[in-house]
Amino acid sequence: MYMNTNTRIIAPEFDFAQPKSLDEGFALMDEHGADARLIAGGTDLLVQMKMERISPAWVISLARIDELRAITAGKGLSLGAMASIKEVSVAAPVKAGYAALAEACNAYSTVSIMLMGTIGGNICNASPAADTAPALLAFDAVAVVKSARGSRRVAMADFFAGPGKSALKPGEILTAIELPEPAAGSGSAFLKISRVVADISQVCVGVSLVRDGDRITDCRIALGSVAPTPIRIAGAEAALGGQKGGDAVFDKAAEIAARDIKPISDARASESYRRHAARIIVRDALKTAWQRAAEGAAK
Ligand SMILES: Cc1cc2nc3c(=O)[nH]c(=O)nc-3n(C[C@H](O)[C@H](O)[C@H](O)COP(=O)(O)OP(=O)(O)OC[C@H]3O[C@@H](n4cnc5c(N)ncnc54)[C@H](O)[C@@H]3O)c2cc1C
């Protein structure tokens, strides 16, 4: 029976497995196929199950696969898919080099969701409103995906296929998200507008730019909640490349972003509000990233 309300119980029965290794997880997924769903923190999946939008016969937990939790910094940064949003938000290398990602995690609606929700779940759920997505797009992150048949790398720009749809194929598990080392002179920022703090975004933006003196040598701008997937705005990025940084070019890029997004009107905001808000937060995020880049550290 389809129910429209979010109840406290999960009515349909299901079997539950807790593999201790990726190989065990792959075998379970291959055995149960479309009858199985992976669960990480469960903050998206359990809502879907309670509302009976999905009723998997098997739920396979990733919680006991220790190798999925690691956050490691070397030349760049590797975030295990099972790292919680809270763990990512407080990780020293994230705070030191990837300010937009730390801010995206800290923009989450509640502490309990930050503690339970994982970065991998946020991406694999493929919501247009996923807070970490614009930051990961702005950092040109890559998803590391594994299955019994091998491993592949998917650029974050190719990961999102539509609302609730990702590039993951049957039997695949996202194991990590890798971020390249920021270039010297980098600065980044993330901003989110929501109806109340405890809500997903009406609009959010992640930007990352590289500053050489008074010029912008590279820039990525990505928005959430303004299209069927989180998106980069190529026109706005092109308007900044090679230009002198400052209010005039930031305003121009923000106008292009507001024009090129494809927002809808829904319960959270109207299309016109989303365009207006996008212009403001793109401009403000660019200003902040520009200022951070001037402060010397790769932020
Ligand atoms: C009250 C509430 C508030 C919320 N606030 C926010 C917010 O402010 N910002 C925001 O962005 N989101 C928010 N969310 C959504 C949710 O909490 C996040 O998307 C969270 O990061 C999901 O992570 P999870 O580990 O709980 O995912 P899960 O629910 O465990 O999984 C989500 C989906 O991804 C799949 N999956 C998970 N991990 C993997 C993997 N490693 N490989 C392959 N598939 C995988 C699952 O099968 C499932 O389909 C909120 C949710 C609730 C209920």
Strand % is 15-25%
> How many H/I helices?
11
Q: Looking across the biggest beta sheet, what order are the strands in? A: 4-5-10-6-7
CATH architecture of the largest domain: 2-Layer Sandwich
Query: Radius of gyration from the CA trace?
Result: 19 Å
The domain count comes to 3
Shape: globular
Name of the top-level CATH class of the largest domain: Alpha Beta
- Number of strand elements: 14
Order of helix and strand elements from N to C terminus: EHEHEEEHHHHHHEEEEEEEEEHHH
What small molecules are bound in this structure? flavin-adenine dinucleotide
Distance between the termini: 49 Å
How does the helix and strand content classify structurally? alpha+beta
Q: What is the mean predicted local confidence, pLDDT? A: 95
- How would a crystallographer describe the biggest sheet? 5 strands, antiparallel
CATH topology of the largest domain: Uridine Diphospho-n-acetylenolpyruvylglucosamine Reductase, domain 3
